[in-house]
From TrEMBL:
Residues that span the membrane, as ranges: 29-49, 61-83, 89-110, 151-168, 220-241
InterPro entries per record: Fe2_transport_prot_B_C, FeoB_GTPase, Gate_dom
Protein name, entry field: Nucleoside transporter/FeoB GTPase Gate domain-containing protein
Residues in Ferrous iron transport protein B C-terminal domain copies: 93-143
Record's GO cellular component terms: plasma membrane
Length: 253
């Protein structure tokens, strides 16, 4: 929120939207879709909530879908950088490169399959200016308090539900169905199933659990990518349905 407010008050944010407009058009969006995407790099929940700034339902659907699938949150990124980066820069590039390719390819698919209006970017470019610290602090606090008011009850409730399901051994049944995919298609050990399923609750903790499994670099790259894209965390899942509705939420998944 601080970085976003700083870019906005300095007059750079509209320029960033214009600069990226051509790239975003390739996936059926305009430059302002970069704002919720940047927020999604901190946490997917406020990123998806920020899609409200986009004019049409189609744009909101595409942006929210891309955030939930291929934009890792800050906590997950910290674990990926810590664990995968420990194996070298190229494995880390492989993870982020794969996520970008997934983001871009899904965006192209949605551009041609998601029907609806896609307005052009019409924006007035303000002059550069020095942000006021007082205004900046007030704006950051307003956004943080708004996020906590809207998202915190959803996050707490969702985590409570998942923990109840965990106590009823639901994840053990899911592990049986997931085993052929995880072990045969992805080449991961059977022990990796538990962290992957835990990713529904906390993806960053799930990545940390890979450390005890002695995974090869290839397995760690695959595990990090699949954990990032295969299912949104429970808080993102709930917000996705609340913002898009049941029908579009199911399409997004």
């Amino acid at each position: 929120y601080f970085v976003l407010s700083l870019l906005e008050d300095s007059g750079y944010l509209p320029r960033l939207a214009v600069f990226l407009d051509n790239i975003m058009h390739r996936i059926g969006l305009h430059g302002y879709a970069i704002i919720p995407t940047l927020l999604g790099l901190g946490c997917n929940v406020p990123g998806i909530m920020a899609t409200r700034i986009l004019e049409t339902r189609t744009q909101r659907f595409i942006t929210a879908t891309l955030i939930s699938i291929a934009v890792p949150c800050a906590a997950l990124q910290a674990m990926i950088i810590g664990m995968v980066g420990d194996r070298g820069i190229w494995p880390l590039i492989a993870v982020y490169g794969t996520l970008f390719i997934v983001w871009f390819l899904i965006g192209i698919i949605l551009r041609f399959t998601a029907k609806g209006l896609r307005p052009e970017l019409l924006i007035e470019i303000p002059p550069y200016r020095l942000p006021s610290l007082r205004t900046l602090a007030a704006k950051v606090w307003m956004r943080i308090s708004g996020f906590l008011k809207e998202a915190l009850p959803i996050i707490i409730g969702a985590i409570l539900v998942v923990n109840i399901l965990y106590q009823f051994k639901l994840f053990e049944y899911l592990a049986r169905f997931a085993e052929p995919v995880v072990t045969r298609m992805w080449g991961m050990p059977r022990e990796a199933i538990a962290p992957l399923l835990l990713g529904i609750l906390r993806k960053d903790v799930a990545i940390g659990m890979f450390a005890a499994l002695g995974l090869t670099t290839r397995q760690l790259i695959i595990g990090s990518v699949m954990l990032s894209i295969f299912f949104p965390c429970i808080a993102t899942f709930v917000v996705l349905f609340r913002e898009l509705g049941i029908k579009d939420g199911l399409k997004s998944l």
